[in-house]
Design brief:
This protein has about 200 residues and is mainly beta. The protein has 1 helix and 8 strands, in the order αββββββββ. Helices cover about 15% and strands about 45% of the residues. The longest helix is centred in the N-terminal third of the chain and has 28 residues.
Length: about 200
């Protein structure tokens, strides 16, 4: 009686061992893998990044473009960009930073919750595919602050814009210095020299 019982236990043990091997292999393959490398967006040559730079990360901005009513050099009044005011969100829609105009330099600035920050100047632009939207941009970073994801960033692309152009509010001498906000969204790709 003992022998058949031992044989049955051995067969059962081998069956469990063999059937759990694929499960263990599957679990080891689903361990946390490094995130996939972000791909650069397809853009016109005019706003292409310099050779040798790769995408470091991507954010979507959602917020406003702020305009002030100002007289131009010709004396005619028009809405002039004061700067952005937008939240920056990662691919999981988590807010990771802010986009605004630096109060001192007036330059567009991206500041992340990790403490890193960059400001830049537009180097080139192309019209948006949506005629009612602000242009796509190539931005050269001119200053860095803090340490984090933005530390090595040298170039930024603004693409896939929607909205953001000034509305039809009156802008004349009686509205001088008035502000208006225009809702917008855009994708920003941050580049740094390849390692």
């Amino acid at each position: 009686m003992r022998r058949p019982l031992l044989a049955a236990a051995a067969v059962l043990g081998l069956t469990v061992l063999i059937s759990s091997a694929p499960l263990a292999h599957t679990q080891s393959n689903t361990q946390k893998e490094p995130p996939a490398q972000e791909s650069a967006p397809d853009v016109p040559d005019a706003i292409a990044v310099p050779a040798g730079e790769t995408v470091q990360f991507f954010v979507t901005a959602k917020g406003s473009q702020i305009y002030t009513c100002q007289a131009g050099t010709d004396g005619k009044f028009a809405w002039t960009l004061k700067g952005p005011d937008a939240e920056l969100r990662d691919r999981k829609d988590k807010v990771i930073g802010q986009h605004f105009a630096d109060p001192t330099t007036k330059l567009p600035t991206w500041k992340l919750k990790d403490g890193s920050e960059v400001s830049g100047k537009a180097a080139a632009h192309v019209d948006s595919l949506d005629s009612g939207s602000i242009p796509w941009l190539l931005v050269n970073v001119v200053s860095h602050a803090g340490k984090g994801q933005l530390t090595n960033v040298t170039t930024i692309q603004r693409v896939h814009t929607h909205g953001g152009k000034p509305g039809n509010d009156a802008c004349d001498e009686s509205h001088k210095d008035a502000e208006t906000k225009s809702s917008y969204t855009a994708d920003y790709y941050f580049f740094a020299p390849a390692k």
